[in-house]
Amino acid sequence: MAKIKHNNFLDTVNEVFTDATKQGVLHLYAEGEKFTGRKIRIHQNELFHFGTTGYLGLEQDKRLKNAAAEAVYNYGTQFPLSKTYISHPLYRTLEEKIKAMYGYPVIITKNSTLGHMGVIPSAVSDHDAIILDHQVHWSVQSAAKTMKLRSVPVEMIRHNNLDMLEEKVKKFSSKHKRIWYMADGVYSMYGDEAPVLELMELGKKYPQLHLYFDDVHGMSWTGKKGTGFVMSKIKTLPQNVLLFGTLSKTFGASGSVLVCPDKEMYHKIKTFGGPLTFSAQLDPASIAAAIASADIHLSTEIYTLQYELLERIELFNSSLKKTDLPLIDRNNSPVFYIGTGMPITGYNFVNRLMKEGFFVNLGIFPAVPVKNTGVRITISRHNQPEEIKALVQAMEYHYPKALEATYTTYDKVCRAFNLNVKHNNKLLEIPDGFQIQVERNISKIDKDEWDKLLGKQGAFDWEELQFLEDTFTNNALPEENWDFYYIIIRDVLYRPVLTTFFTYGLWKEDMLAPVSVSEKLENLRAKDPYYLTSPVLSMGSLFTEGDHLFLDMTHPLWPTALHLFFHQIELLDRKLQPSMVVLRDFKEESKLNEFFHNHGFVKISMPDACMIKNLSWKGVQDYTGRLSTRSRKHYRKDIKPFTGHFNITITDSLKKEQLSDCYQLFENVRKNNLGLNTFAFPQKIMQNMSRHPNWEFILLELKGKYTKTTKGQIVGVMFCYKNPSLSYVPAFVGMDYTYAKEHQVYRQLLFQTVKRAGELGFKKIDFGLTAAFEKKKIGADVIPKVAYIQARDNYTMEMLDIMENK
Predict the structure, then answer these.
(1) Where do the BioF2-like acetyltransferase domain residues begin and end (predicted)?
(2) What is the pLDDT of residues 327-339, one digit of tens each?
(3) Domains 79-297 and 610-783 agree in fold
């Protein structure tokens, strides 16, 4: 029934990146006619370069440059042939030297992304299974997802969670030949490491476990002959491990390398490896530069270079220890991450450092959770001790200023990253004159004021919120109990500038996921009803729809009120520890879009809302006459001919025997509508509605001659709330799907709802979410809606993405 418009992940990323570009921290252009590696010019300013992944500085080594230049003059700018047919004359030399580094057969690939796309489908058979670390590089995840087309199960575990990995291995062991765990050696954002030795022990315990490491950020700066972090831990490569290294980044040239100890698998991949077969090979300059770098790696010079880098890493580490800067993971890699929490704080901090003469990178969604934005600093041999110390001094000076300028605090950042708070302070000083009222019961809020600000729409006026509080408390099941939080922020004259309410309750984490995902999860929930469920702090509630936020944007201090609002969210987040905070039901082009992004919220699409705004018709004929030509045709074909099939009853109270029947009809629709997958409401909701003066029920009784029992039977019900401000709210629907299609039950309910609202003299109908296509046919305006979410991490989102179309 409900056509759900699901969020396009790329649209979300595009908006985040667009905001970051506006702030001057992404999509920059370097300037100048030459580079030394130590500095980089941006906007005509020379900045010390702390953003490179060429950690050893080999990309500036004269030997690599000379080799590349000579190869261009000798062989041209490219060798435009597939390696399947013939390889460039220098290829054999490169392969032999890289093999000498590792001691195992190698395959050279154009880059790591194409390498993964070629290797994973060749190495993984249809009888295997794949488990991804949820922070493994995007290129690995992307290649692994293609295996779902071959019915290879692909699942995900939380980062470095070996207990979760072992459970997955046990799950797959009886039905799958090999179980591949795919991870990075050194992770590119925080610089943290895979537990390589523990994984090797797990492989001994479970022989089916095979390990696939992407170690491109561990390459060259560590390990014997610069073979990387993973090799530095295991020394020799067992048959159950595939290892990716890089010939770019720290290696100083271009391309990537697969190391494969299994000769049979090596032959299979090399003979036909998808993109490895059909893609153009590395250009002569890249091959020659890689050979020159390999010579350095095969000499003792590599250890001198590694030591010089380690000295700089240790200097940076020791300098950071003297500060309170929130370093997210302390290790000996050249990658460091200073948390800022909110994106806007990250933008501010990066721009401050650039003005001081330092270039650093910003870690931002989707590479990290949106509330885990931070500054990613990389140390290379290009960096000199004096500028390393100067960078730390600049960060120590500007970090608190960036926090203050963006209305955040040190302890808020630490809590976002689960770090120990070294010095506790207030989240935010409340400006003079502002007052914040937070209540747990609507009875503590002035009724007239609430209804004036938020009560003129939907089903969340003052009286209805009393109804919700009574319905969703003191119930047996955890998902049937909600906590309510009402927030009013006032100015010095006690005028409300911002008003809203939140509920805290248990959600299904796939609530807005594609139907295909929810279907799989509901099968699992047959045994474990709380599988992939978690507490959520949400603006509004799962019962209500509409503009849940009143914000007076004519007030000169509305941005201050919003900052105070975020302050209250942070307090609630700290107290309740929800998995996610949701700000919902905003129009697609909300003026607050950039503001929410900058403060740690990511926009996602919601089902469209629908509304009939002007109910001014007199009688059915007048109403249908005002419809579009297509809608009138729809009425004549799909609604009018079926009206006589029903006895239509409108009542403000249900009989005792009707309560359970109507609840079951409502449950039918909820279970059928997996595009908006929620828990059931408590059964007492029917009785509470029946007692409430503002609720009424439109009942469709299918006449006996159309039923299987030849007796009249209620096959549809619309649960309608009569908002005192002249808004009619058909909040929920119930149907018997045995008869729904044949007798057009849903369309008849929609029509009877419009008819009833007009007869009662209501000015508009708030039709709520979902089924926009059907509601548009009967004259409703479709209003695209979005929500803004702030999750503790990206695991659930990425895991659900893995499940989609699996």
Answers:
(1) 631-773
(2) 999 889 999 999 9
(3) no
